[in-house]
Sequence to fold (478 residues):
Amino acid sequence: MRETYTLKLIREIESGSLPLDEYLARKAEAIAKLEPLLNSFITIVKGFENYEAGKLGLLRGLTVAIKDNICVEGVETTCGSLILKGYRPSYDATVVERIKGNSGVITGKTNMDEFAMGSTTEWSAFGPTRNPWDPSRVPGGSSGGSAAAVASGESELALGSDTGGSIRCPASFCGVVGLKPTYGLVSRYGLIAYANSLEQIGPIARDVYGCALLLTVIAGYDPRDSTSIDRSSTDYRATLIDGLEGFRIGVIRELLGEGVDRRIRSSIRESIYKLESLGAVVEEISMPSIEFALPAYYIIAMAEASSNLARYDGVRYGMNLPVRDHDWSRYCEEVRSRGFGLEVKRRMILGAYVLSAGYYDRYYIKALKVRTLIKREFTDAFKTFDALIGPSMPILPFKIGEKVEDPLELYMCDMDTVPVNLAGLPAISIPCGLADGLPIGLQIIGSYFREDLILRVAYNLEATLDLRLKPVFSEVCL
Ligand code: GLN
Fold:
């Protein structure tokens, strides 16, 4: 197997040529130096105490940063929100349990848009994360902290969650690899819900091997998550095979339509030539219902969010305030007014609206119908193709503050990522080039549980492109 960055590191740790203590000290130093600039973390785990010495699991002591909506026992988990400030879970999410059991060293909890609602990490109650390629720009979101930590080398690997693009968007903006698994492949037990029917936890790494490795650790059946699917486990590292002869790849026309930056379009086109040179047959395909994916996604996501976030009432969940006059509704109102940020409030209100009597059929049911159409179109496409491709994001990373005043413009950024979540399919974003010193991400979509195929396409493309990306602010540049 090709010796990619992560594999080389593992081999060095295994052989003892890089002592684990030295490696971990280097990572701690990278965090100490880069954090004041990047703000990738909300909480840093001091001394990386989770390492279970002596056990040689698959991760061999590599560091893993965990998005702050995934529970780690005893470590503050805020979801980027004031309403959960100070909350320390009494249990580990299943994915965290598996990482610890495989000798992953947990570095901390990463910054995110509040309750994972956003595409920039600007909507965190703990300040924005900055893009390691250009600190005046957003890192993408909502898992922006995880992607920035990996791109800068503050952490080797990271977990994100993807409801409508929150792994692929920041992976694309930060020039790293991020994978959103098939719905049901990875347990959501211990993930604080935004929109249950859409989201999955997934890996972020500097290379495809790192993603395959972390996916191998976290994937698998979990009886504690009723949507988890019971199927035999896969070692995704073994799916990284050279060559794409006979692969049929479809380019989704609608993902490259209006609103896509021409520099991104031409970079995707170059990648298509590379895929052809690797033996794949690449053809264009049209999926007309994708045009309606964005409104359908936002209706469904907001509806589910409004129901999920109802529990933060200051009694069962959420911040405690002093009780003054024993007026329950006033107390609850105060907790929610103070605890939630602007965007979360907007979405809860819109979500309640689309679910209310009279509007339910007009909006919510209609969105579910669109979802069914999209699913069908994908299922048909996979009768012909092994994988489908398009850009991960239609635009390059933009300046912090540039779009924050205009929610609709921000929602538009998700046009290429949300169709996959509506259908429940797996998709990976890998860097495919640079434009004006900023990374571009290519998205590879697979059929249900065909993570093996998209990883293989990504692995081969990564080798041919051989980009060797180094952000301006990273461990290697310190
Ligand atoms: N940007 C999308 C949203 O705001 C996706 C977020 C996510 O995947 N968590 O809903």
User: Anything to note?
Assistant: The radius of gyration is 21 Å.
